[in-house]
Amino acid sequence: MGMFSEGVDVVCTPAGQPSALTWAGRQYMVCAEPVRWFERRQWWAEETRAPLGTGPGLVDHEIWRVQVRLAGAKEEQQQNEILTLDLTRNIGSGRWRLLRIHDALKPKSA
């Protein structure tokens, strides 16, 4: 599994679930129900102090695991090129970042 942090553009449903994303100049559609959870972050290592009244986004990261495939790909390619990605959304800014690409489902190189 590759772990890093890279900005992505995410389109969400009215309920707030990711439905599509643009990453590395390519458009992807979410092809399975996304899963959401929260992970603790070491805010004390990243911040000098916790501003009064902050909680959401300071202590926990919102993580979404999505399965995506290239938008507009042919049907036979779609099944072979499904990626599983972990995304996080910054609560303050609304920006999305790609955190993990799961190796077992990386696209195969020619």
How are the SSEs ordered, and which strands pair?
Elements: E1 2-12, E2 18-23, E3 26-30, E4 35-40, H1 43-46, E5 60-70, H2 75-80, E6 83-89, E7 96-101
Antiparallel strand pairs: 1-2, 1-7, 2-3, 3-5, 4-5, 5-6, 6-7
How many angstroms separate the termini? Answer: 20 Å
Percent of residues in β-strands:
over 45%
How many individual domains? 1
What's the β-strand tally? 7
Which secondary-structure class do the elements indicate?
mainly beta
| Total of DSSP H or I helical runs spanning 4+ residues | 2
Over all CA atoms, what is the radius of gyration? 15 Å
Q: Pick out the low-confidence regions.
A: none
**How would a textbook summarize the main sheet?**
6 strands, antiparallel, barrel
How would you concisely characterize the structure shown here?
It is elongated, with a radius of gyration of 15 Å. The protein is mainly beta and 110 residues long.
Plain-language structure description:
By secondary structure, this protein is mainly beta. It has one domain (2-105). It contains 2 helices and 7 strands, in the order E-E-E-E-H-E-H-E-E. The protein has helices at 43-46, 75-80; strands spanning 2-12, 18-23, 26-30, 35-40, 60-70, 83-89, 96-101. Strands 1-2-3-5-6-7 form a 6-stranded antiparallel β-barrel. The mean pLDDT is 80.
Keyword list:
110 residues; 6-stranded antiparallel beta barrel; 2 helices; mainly beta; single chain
